[in-house]
């Protein structure tokens, strides 16, 4: 019995070939969108030189052609079919950081950067770093207060306070 028989963290979620093809297809779509926008701007050569969309059009065309070649090679060449792009275990680790970061960005919009940063730092220190709760809260609070002092007071550059609720309204910050 192998030692990996019960461990499915080495199970491949997607192959390199599939990701190559998906990425190539996305770049073809992006190239087409950029070429369309460049045509709207004008992609020709005017009396005073190139129009605004001239260079973006040709760069997008080159990008689309290169992506089409990659997509064609992906369909034709099956040698990378068994090569794993990402496995279950590492993908879970990436998601364990990516999903909370997405929640943090949403939190910045809803409750502001200072409170969101405090929560984000404290949760990550406690969850991934296994620090004591009081240390996690202290560091999160310290970073948030430092951000507030530097940006709001010294530089007088307001950072997002939150569109849903402004927790800093308690201390008079609008």
How far from one another are the termini?
A: 64 Å
**Going across the major beta sheet, what is the strand order?**
1-4
**Count of DSSP H/I helices:** 5
| Strand-residue proportion | 5-15%
State the major sheet: 2 strands, antiparallel
Global Rg: 25 Å
Indicate the structural class.
mainly alpha
Number of beta-strand segments: 4
Fraction of residues in helix: 55-70%
Strand/helix succession? EHEEHEHHH
State mean pLDDT (0 to 100 scale).
89
> Would you identify the regions where 5 or more consecutive residues have pLDDT less than 50?
1-5
- Quickly count the domains: 2
C-alpha geometry: flat
Short description:
By secondary structure, the chain is mostly helical. Helices cover 63% and strands 7% of the residues.
Describe the fold and architecture:
This protein has 5 helices and 4 strands, in the order E-H-E-E-H-E-H-H-H. The chain has 174 residues and is mainly alpha-helical. It folds into 2 domains: 12-86; 89-171, no CATH class. The strands form 2 sheets. Strands 1-4 form a two-stranded antiparallel ribbon. Strands 2-3 form a two-stranded antiparallel sheet. A hairpin with a 2-residue loop joins strand 2 and strand 3. Helix 1 packs antiparallel against helix 2 and helix 4 (113-127) runs antiparallel to helix 5 (133-154). The longest helix is centred in the first third of the chain and has 26 residues, at 16-41. It is flat and about 60 Å long. The termini are far apart. Mean pLDDT is 89; it is low at 1-5.
């Amino acid at each position: 019995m192998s030692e990996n028989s019960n461990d499915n963290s080495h199970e491949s979620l997607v192959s390199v070939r599939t990701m190559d093809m998906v990425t190539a297809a996305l770049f073809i779509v992006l190239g087409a969108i950029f070429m369309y926008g460049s045509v709207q701007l004008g992609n020709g050569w005017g009396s005073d030189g190139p129009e605004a969309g001239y260079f973006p059009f040709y760069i997008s065309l080159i990008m689309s052609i290169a992506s089409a070649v990659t997509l064609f090679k992906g369909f034709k060449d099956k040698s990378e079919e068994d090569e794993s792009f990402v496995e279950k275990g590492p993908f879970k680790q990436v998601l364990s950081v990516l999903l909370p970061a997405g929640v943090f960005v949403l939190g910045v919009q809803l409750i502001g950067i200072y409170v969101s940063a405090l929560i984000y730092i404290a949760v990550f220190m406690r969850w991934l770093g296994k620090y004591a709760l009081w240390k996690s809260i202290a560091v999160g609070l310290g970073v948030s207060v430092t951000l507030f002092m530097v940006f709001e007071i010294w530089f007088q550059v307001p950072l997002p306070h939150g569109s849903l609720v402004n927790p800093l309204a308690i201390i008079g910050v609008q």
